[in-house]
């Protein structure tokens, strides 16, 4: 329980230090309608070829496509913020028998708020995460040939969080949602489950795990210098029903450095700690020059 109060204090401290660092948007929603929308699609491509290259190297080709889209509503006392993040990438090297994923995620976020004071809202939220395609474990057979076995798939795992609480919203660039009553559902294919709940914490033969806990999510977007934008997304979750001291952490940092209207240098970093999936930090990082289309 002490960790839960610590999370709450950290959240309040974050609000106190960050609330004056971002200016509210200049647009008046009453003149442009209740809906605001903004999105970006990006494509990263990389190809390397080596021929009699003494220093060594392996021919490879890779690509990554991503979408980041916001659709928000604000009218009177009501605010409804929605965000879609999706990305998929593959790489194929000359010596590998298979094309392998470098990225694969689908995430939907939705927060509905009823205004209580200038920046505070009563809130209800939902967050959904999964992947698009199959994931594999790779190994070698007795002849040294590369083999793979299916380990994950679309909706296996899939995570759904839903809860109620309070939302602090200074503007679309600074939002903190505190939900002391949050249900978490983990969905899997029961054919993949393992003894001792070793497959994402789901009991063998079952297809769902239920948790009830405390959730805090933070969104902070800022322009560090001209044409350099940082987007921070942090989610913390503690399960009341089992090991509440083991706080699940999901942090994403998306950096966009604008070159011109259509070209940017993109850096995406994500780290996850969830001891039901893996007892350690999972890390994902994608970096490259991207072709972008805003919509």
Structural features, described:
With 295 residues, the protein is mostly beta strands. The protein has one domain: Outer membrane phospholipase (ompla), Chain C, CATH 2.40.230. It is 7% helix and 62% strand. The protein has helices spanning 2-18, 29-32; strands at residues 35-48, 60-75, 78-93, 100-115, 120-130, 135-140, 146-152, 158-171, 174-187, 208-225, 228-239, 248-258, 263-274, 278-294. The strands form 2 sheets. The protein has a 12-stranded antiparallel barrel. Strands 6-7 form a two-stranded antiparallel ribbon. The chain is flat.
Number of helices: 2
Distance between the termini: 44 Å
Structural class: mainly beta
Helix content: under 10%
Along the chain, the helix and strand elements come as HHEEEEEEEEEEEEEE
Please identify, by name, the CATH architecture.
Beta Barrel
| Portion in strands | over 45%
- Which regions are unreliable across 5 or more consecutive residues at pLDDT < 50? 1-5, 18-31
CATH class: Mainly Beta
Write out key terms for the chains shown:
295 residues; mainly beta; Outer membrane phospholipase (ompla), Chain C; twelve-stranded antiparallel barrel; two-stranded antiparallel ribbon
Q: What's the structural blueprint in terms of helices and strands?
A:
Blueprint: H1 2-18, H2 29-32, E1 35-48, E2 60-75, E3 78-93, E4 100-115, E5 120-130, E6 135-140, E7 146-152, E8 158-171, E9 174-187, E10 208-225, E11 228-239, E12 248-258, E13 263-274, E14 278-294
Antiparallel strand pairs: 1-2, 1-14, 2-3, 3-4, 4-5, 5-8, 6-7, 8-9, 9-10, 10-11, 11-12, 12-13, 13-14
